[in-house]
Every structure is written in C-alpha cells, then in structure tokens.
Amino acid sequence: MNRMKFWMLAAILLTCGMSALTSSCTSDKVFKNVEGVLEEPIVNQMSEQVKQGYVKAMKIHPFDIMNDSANSVNVCGISELDGGLSTEGYGIMVTKNDISTTFTDIRNTRQPQAFYDAKANTLWLTSCVMEGTGTNVEQLYKIQFGSNDIANIADTIEPYQMQQKILEHLKYSVEGDKITFFIDGKEITSATNTVKDMGGLDDEQPIWIGEQISYDLNNGNPRVCFTPGVKFVTGLVLTYDDMPTLSASIQLAEDGSYELSDFKVK
Questions:
Q1: List of residues 6+ apart from 141 with CB closer than 8 A
Q2: Among 173, 88, 186, CA closest to 131
Q3: The pTM is what?
Q4: Alpha-carbon distance 73 to 11, whole Å?
C-alpha cells in the first residue's frame, strides 16, 4: 500500500471513529427516561354526606365557569346545596338552551375552564383531580349534546394515562446543572438548575413528571401542558423553580384513544 492510500485510509477510520463516538454520546442523551409520579389512575371519592345531599337537594348555589351567550351554553360549578351544605368541590352543571345536566362527580376546584366548539357541538371542560403545594393535576372532559340538548360525557382523558403517553415521547440528559429535554429524540429545550442547597441532583432519577398536568383549551383545540420536576439528594418534594412548561396538541380518536404531537415550550 503506498503512503497516499495509507493516509487516506487512516483519515477515513478516524472520521468513522469520531462519528461513532458522537453518535454514542447523542444516544446517551436521548435515551435517559423520565419517571412518572402517578402510579395508577386517580379516583376521587365523593363523601356519603355530599351524595345524600345531592339526592335530596331542592336548591343549589352555582358559580359561573363559562357563559357563551351567543350559543346559549353555560357551565357552572356547584358550591353549596340546601341548608348551606358544602359540596366539598364536587358538581358541575351544563346548560344548553335552558336544558340543564348536572354531573355531580366532576370536581370544580382550582378554577376549571370550559370552551364550547359550536361547529362540533362539543364542550371541553377541565377539572382538577389532585391539588396541593406544587401540585395541580387536571382531567379533561369532552362533552357533547344530543338533539334534546342533554349533555353527555363522550370522552375523558385521565391524568395517569396522559402521564404515560407523555413518557413515550419525553427524554432528558444532564450535564452538570444543565438539563436538556428531548421529544422523540430531538432537543426541544434546556434549563439550568440554580438550586445550590439541596445536595445536587438525585443520582438515580432526578427528573419526574405527573404532579403538574393541566390543559390549555386553545379555542377548541386542547393542548396538554406539563412541567417536569427535579428531585434532589436532600428533600422529599420535587422542585419546579427552573423547569420549563411544555405543551402538546391532542388528537382524540373515535374509540377514545389519543396521540400527542406538535410539542412546544409554552
């Protein structure tokens, strides 16, 4: 082999080696899995007192959530029943053309949102099913109206299933205090941790989702919004101070299944 061919071969081998190394590093970044906080579907339990109160109720005390006067659609939360009995945050009333339907088991805390899509004759409604300091977990309802204007729940997107769907797409990498997030292998954003008094990021699993899942109804095109939380060496709760909120559009199929796409930084 002459000298020219030798150096050409050496250059090719070096280039391949560097490409393999770069590919390996990128692969390591892409395939670190985020963990989910929610371990199972959330089931809220209305107290027996409130159940009996609804059975006997002759009056309710509503508060407005949405009033679409142009389409004669109104959504209210129910705060109290006869005699000042608290509903403990349970109860939504949907009215179209003076026909009211009450969903006693839908929660109405944390300022639920509603949007009526007149073209599709569909009402989108959010409901907080888990709340607390640093925690806001919503459930999404798709409500449709029959020819008699009675409202029916057509589909429900439950937080645990949504968490699992997000985890199919979301990965991350950590370099020092820099956390980079990837959607389907492509970088979407990064954040720098500024918390210095918690012993550093947890060695085993620093990035979690599930405590902050909400919805932007986006004029009838709902998007799920979620914020990753950081687990540190010390401390029992996740921290969200430096973390970005991401969102994705929802494609809901007729059988109730759905897919996520068009991920963005909110």
A1: 106, 124, 125, 126, 127, 153, 155, 156, 157
A2: 88
A3: 0.87
A4: 71
Residues in the chain: 266
Task: Report the pLDDT value the prediction gives residue 70, as an integer from 0 to 100.
Answer: 97
**Calpha distance 70→68 (Å, rounded):** 6
By the 10 Å C-beta count (0-12 exposed, 13-18 middle, 19+ buried), 175 is classed as exposed
Residue whose tokens read 């300091």: 133
Q: Is the dihedral of CA 208, 209, 212, 216 positive or negative?
A: positive
How many other C-beta atoms are found inside a 10 Å radius of the C-beta of residue 68? Answer: 15
Which letter, b or e, does each residue of 191-204 get, where b requires 16 or more Cβ atoms within 10 Å of its Cβ?
bebeeeeeeebbee
Between CA 94 and CA 77 the distance in angstroms is: 9
Asked whether the beta carbons of 143 and 123 are under 8 A apart, the reply is: yes
- How confident is the model over 9-55, as pLDDT tens digits? 344 344 444 444 444 444 445 479 999 999 999 999 999 999 999 99
Where residue 72 falls (left for φ over 0; alpha for ψ -120 to 50; beta otherwise) is left
Can you read off the two tokens belonging to residue 253? 């199929």
